[in-house]
Amino acid sequence: MQLATQAQEIMKMANFTLHHLPLACLLLLSAPLIAFATSIPEGFLQCLSLHCENTTPISEFVYTPINSSYSSVLNITIQNLRFLTPYTPKPLFIVTPLHVCHVQAATICSRWYGLQIRIRSGGHDYEGLSYLSEVPFVIIDMVNLRSVAVNVEDKTAWVESGSTVGELYYRIAEKNRTLGFPASVCPTVGVGGHFSGGGYGMMLRKYGLAADNIIDAQLVDAQGQLQDRESMGEDLFWAIRGGGGGSFGVVVSWKVKLVPVPSTVTVFSPLRTLEQNATKLVHQWQLVANKLPDDLFMRVILWSDNSGPNGTRTMKAIFSTLYLGGVDALLEVMKSGFPELNVTRQDCIEMSWIESVLYFAGFERGSPLEVLLNRSSNTKSFFKDKSDYVKEPIPESGIEGMWKRFYEEDERVPIMIWSPYGGKMAEISESAIPFPHRAGVLAGVLYKILYITDWTNGGNEVAPKHVSWIRDFYCYMTPYVSKSPREAYINYRDLDIGTNNVIGNTSYEQASVWGKKYFKNNFGSLVLVKTAVDPHNFFRHEQSIPPL
Ligand SMILES: Cc1cc2nc3c(=O)[nH]c(=O)nc-3n(C[C@H](O)[C@H](O)[C@H](O)COP(=O)(O)OP(=O)(O)OC[C@H]3O[C@@H](n4cnc5c(N)ncnc54)[C@H](O)[C@@H]3O)c2cc1C
Ligand SMILES: *[C@@H]1O[C@H](CO)[C@@H](O)[C@H](O)[C@H]1NC(C)=O
Ligand SMILES: *[C@@H]1O[C@H](CO)[C@@H](O)[C@H](O)[C@H]1NC(C)=O
Ligand SMILES: *[C@@H]1O[C@H](CO)[C@@H](O)[C@H](O)[C@H]1NC(C)=O
Ligand SMILES: *[C@@H]1O[C@H](CO)[C@@H](O)[C@H](O)[C@H]1NC(C)=O
Ligand SMILES: *[C@@H]1O[C@H](CO)[C@@H](O)[C@H](O)[C@H]1NC(C)=O
Ligand SMILES: *[C@@H]1O[C@H](CO)[C@@H](O)[C@H](O)[C@H]1NC(C)=O
Ligand SMILES: *[C@@H]1O[C@H](CO)[C@@H](O)[C@H](O)[C@H]1NC(C)=O
Ligand SMILES: *[C@@H]1O[C@H](CO)[C@@H](O)[C@H](O)[C@H]1NC(C)=O
């Protein structure tokens, strides 16, 4: 804190701005100067305060480890408790910009002092890449930049990257109940990371991904320049809509196209046990879920517990469904499309779209919409997740093999969520944005699997057991899922599938191991964009796009 004040004084006396620093020098910096960096944090603070004149004193938005709030600011949005330990590497500084200029200053000064930056919006990264690094680093935490400006006439909104999707949904509903946006089921996810990696929710089959509905963006690039769609050009604008966060710059805000939603939607979540033919139903679901009308999105959530006969282990399947229409139409659709599920009127609830957001987020019926503004409403846990894409239905024997493996793990620890594609997802070309998992040339995606192991009992001590279970399970699934490459969803970040070198000299071949899984042939185009806009690889992490 004293350092910050000092820097402020120096700035005032010197009446000097960073623009006077030779930009050519900044551009020449490439490899991180690690030893240099740790020894001169003071210079970093000075640099920050010099850059943005006439704004807020840096003591109001920069936290150093000696500040009493540092630890709570750091911990607050860490979702995965596996990375919330005293041994997790901590940042030298946390910058929480109040103005775009602070983002620019943090970028320029981190680069000048050879510090790596980690950008954090909602902190939901599965592997903690937004707030931890093995080399000296600074967190730019977008939490204070979270205004949402909804324009109902245009049906658009500008949303700053520190907003959560819950805040976005709330601000839209506040203005108009028949407009919505197709993004995350979980409201605490940050739009900064979420839209950068694609982003999907219950309207996936009707409107595609969040990233499919972005029409402009503001980004601070590796030179610290603020760019919009027009000035950054279509290649970079393409790359940031699905190419993954933390590779191309700091997204400050997104302009999105809102989508129409009916005034009444219908939800239902019937639960089926093995005794109620869950295995057959899940098998059948694979044949129909991607072919049902686009207005219907039916995910399957699967887990195991001890509620079988005489307290034995059994499987449960919930068919969690949103229909963009009323119950009468829905029952017709179900009768012709998936009669085996035997959905009845009693299973269904009609409500507004925004109420359905609360319903799928797990809030009690009748909760005020304001719960969407609670950035910590989501319960934190220890977890390790993985993803797969399925292109051919898995036979019943394969499904029964999954159940067997579920029974070997603790009850309720593993969960699978199967999300059907088809509809709009199959209409968009594989290269329209970097997210490639669409209809395919030979075989299209039927559905995506999210594998979760999620626990609180036992903390990190039991992590090896659970992580090893999910890796074995992933191995078991090999014959049933996409191949060459085995595709994965970047927003379900998984460092098991490959990583870069932490010092930043990753080769194209090394990165393409994980890169092709997330992006297929779009990986090559992402590398070309990266080479053009950040050739010195300033924005980097374990799975960032490398330059050539
Ligand atoms: C409980 C939970 C529920 C989820 N539900 C869904 C879901 O329904 N649908 C879905 O698609 N995904 C879901 N996800 C995954 C989620 O989309 C990703 O974890 C997403 O990347 C989170 O974004 P964030 O801003 O919260 O995360 P962060 O951890 O802040 O960031 C994620 C990545 O993006 C980078 N980044 C963050 N902000 C910016 C920025 N402003 N500019 C550039 N790069 C940035 C980070 O450096 C990091 O690499 C869920 C995750 C969790 C933990
Ligand atoms: C750091 O702590 C001091 C008090 O110790 C406080 O005045 C200052 O505002 C804090 N900085 C931030 C960014 O909160
Ligand atoms: C933040 O988490 C760390 C690691 O578990 C812990 O030591 C610290 O006390 C936490 N800080 C606060 C304010 O809770
Ligand atoms: C809400 O948006 C819809 C679709 O754009 C429009 O038809 C309707 O008039 C709007 N309603 C209000 C109250 O603004
Ligand atoms: C399970 O399937 C069998 C045969 O297909 C059928 O007769 C039975 O009614 C089903 N049970 C339930 C609970 O749906
Ligand atoms: C449950 O336990 C009772 C008493 O031990 C036994 O008679 C019955 O057969 C068991 N049922 C099943 C389905 O295993
Ligand atoms: C369908 O559900 C209804 C109501 O729950 C039930 O009465 C009926 O037996 C079920 N039919 C089948 C075939 O399972
Ligand atoms: C936000 O959600 C958390 C977790 O459910 C809860 O403990 C907290 O009280 C909520 N905060 C507010 C302001 O409602
Ligand atoms: C990256 O650097 C490491 C350590 O210096 C070295 O061993 C490795 O060969 C380098 N990789 C490439 C692709 O240059």
TrEMBL record:
Its cofactor is FAD. Keywords: Cell wall, Disulfide bond, FAD, Flavoprotein, Glycoprotein, Nucleotide-binding, Oxidoreductase, Secreted, Signal. Gene3D superfamilies: 3.30.465.10, 3.40.462.20, Uridine Diphospho-n-acetylenolpyruvylglucosamine Reductase, domain 2 (3.30.43.10). Coiled coil: none annotated. It is found in: Secreted, Cell wall. Residues 1-37 form the signal peptide. GO terms for molecular function: FAD binding; oxidoreductase activity. Residues 87-261 form the FAD-binding PCMH-type domain. Its main location: secreted. Belongs to the oxygen-dependent FAD-linked oxidoreductase family. This is FAD-binding PCMH-type domain-containing protein. It comes from Corymbia citriodora subsp. variegata.
